[in-house]
Amino acid sequence: MTNEEFDKTLDGYKELIDEKIRSIIAETSYASEFKEVLEYALFPGGKRLRPVLMLACHGMFSEIDDGALRYACGLEILHSYSLIHDDMPCMDNDLMRRGKPSVHAAYGEGKALLAGDALMDIAYRLLGEPMASGAVSPFWALSRLCGDDGLIGGQYSDLYEEIDTLDKLLAMYKKKTGALIHLSCLSGYAFGNNFDYEQYKKYAKILDEIWTIDEIGGRKGGDFQAVDRFGAAFGAAFQLYDDITEYIDGEKSDGTSVMNFVDLDEAKRMLNSKLNDAAVALKRTRTKNVDFLRMLLNKFIIL
Predict the structure, then answer these.
(1) Cβ neighbours, 10 Å, residue 4
(2) What's the average pLDDT block by block, 10 residues per block, for the chain (303 residues)?
(3) 149-171: burial string, b at 16+ Cβ within 10 Å, e else
(4) Buried (b) or exposed (e) across 201-213, using 16+ Cβ within 10 A?
């Protein structure tokens, strides 16, 4: 895959996601003034990384259908709700988001709180829809990656626990940032392989285990384990990349940054090691349709 082909594929994913999200919001019965707040929170959409990962992991195994696209949009809407709440004065108190005033700064705290609640509700509706095959949505098995073992648990640690060691920081990042990325990849695999209830039960224990690179691919169900490893490794790399680029750009750390614990060279080594783990995991899949994800990883390498 060339850089031009990568960019075209990425833009295609983003266009699909944006068009579908707009139609989903339009279908709600909220007042038009409130829909404006929801759209303000959702557009422009930044990287759209989570739904792109879900669709790309799905596309490794089968053609993407409308149900998968709606689920991917649910992941993005879930992410957006979390950003609204994170920015509010009672939490991170950020006045800017994606180059414009955050939702509470633009519309007030009351509407921002309700907008976050509304997006969470919309997201859970989308994530709970069955797959095209009629099989149950994978979200029932993976939703804890949004709660105590993921997004909300990580945000609590960031706000209220003392993050005074590198290990504690990385554990918090794994939940707050990495879990939703991990969830996106596993969901893509589930949709791409028409997982049913019995398969979920069989593989759910993998989420509680630590898989080394050498173990991936050598076991039955190796594709699932490889995607699991890919999602976990890339989720860890993504936050390290953010910390490093903010440091290089001269942005002031808010106190929770890997740059508070290691120097730049070590931070780069950590990042590129995680990206390498993710790349090796891709090689262990039985599908050859991994060019897009491999090139995506390359975009995050910092030398």
Answers:
(1) 8
(2) 95 97 98 98 94 96 94 97 96 93 97 98 95 83 84 94 95 94 93 77 58 44 84 96 94 83 97 96 88 97 94
(3) bbbbbbbebbeeeebeeeeebbb
(4) eebeebbeeeeee
Residue 97's SS3 state is: strand
Tokens describing residue 126: 């989308």
Tokens of 186: 């596993």
Helix (H, G, I), strand (E, B) or coil at 292: helix
Q: Is 194 left (phi over 0), alpha (psi -120 to 50) or beta?
A: left
Q: Rg of the chain over CA atoms, in angstroms?
A: 19
Which of 92, 91, 81 has the alpha carbon at shortest distance from 50? Answer: 81
Q: Is the pTM of this model over 0.70?
A: yes
Q: Which two tokens stand for residue 291?
A: 């060019």
